Amino acid sequence: MKNKLLVIMFAIMAVLFFSCQSAPTYSRHLNAKLLHLVNDAVFEVVLEKPVDEQIVYEKEIDWNLVPFAMRNDKYHSIGAAFAISKTELITAFHVIEVIEDGYDKCFVRDTKGNVYEVDMITGGSKEKDYLIFTVKGKTFDNFFQFERNYNIGDTVFSIGNALGEGIVIRDGLVLGTVPEKDSGRWNLIKTSASGSPGNSGGPLVTPKLC
Question: Structural domains in the chain?
Answer without folding.
Answer: 2-51+63-209 (2.40.10.120)
